[in-house]
Amino acid sequence: MTPAPRRRLVPSFLATDRVQPTRNTLDRLTLLSSTGVTALDDLTHAQRRLVELLQGGPLALVEVAARLVLPVSLVRVLVADLVDSSHLHARAPIPEAKAHDPQLLEKVLDGLRSIR
């Protein structure tokens, strides 16, 4: 028999006093990185854990949420506060490349075949 999952002593929604982030540009795939600011005394426990996690290198917002075992919506609020206080950098995800023109690809393929 497997043991029951442990419940948090403090629910995750109490990690912040707001439900909406201060910026709406944070996507699930936003790349987060630490700015190197070492003054962590004014941060909450969850914010401190988030900054310490990113000191090892950049991660996507959704990956940070998974590693901290917190909801993505809560991590968005925490990240927005940390970006505002200059503890983190947030970079928008790289957009998917646009599809190439099939006629152009055919011309390139024909040109490569004619080289032989």
Please give the structural blueprint:
Blueprint: E1 31-34, H1 45-54, E2 59-60, H2 61-68, H3 72-84, E3 88-91, H4 102-115
Antiparallel strand pairs: 1-2, 1-3
Helix pairs in contact: 2-3
Key descriptive features of the protein:
3 strands, 39% helix, mainly alpha, 4 helices, 3-stranded antiparallel sheet, 116 residues
Sheet having the most strands: 3 strands, antiparallel
Which value, in Å, is the CA radius of gyration? 21 Å
Low-confidence stretches: none
Q: Residue share in helices?
A: 25-40%
Number of helices: 4
- DSSP E strands, number: 3
Topology pattern, helix = H, strand = E: EHEHHEH
Ends: how far apart? 67 Å
> Overall mean pLDDT score?
82
Largest sheet strand order: 2-1-3
Descriptive account of the structure:
With 116 residues, the protein is mainly alpha-helical. Helix content is 39%, strand content 9%. The protein is built from 4 helices and 3 strands; from the N terminus they run βαβααβα. Helix 2 crosses helix 3. The protein is elongated.
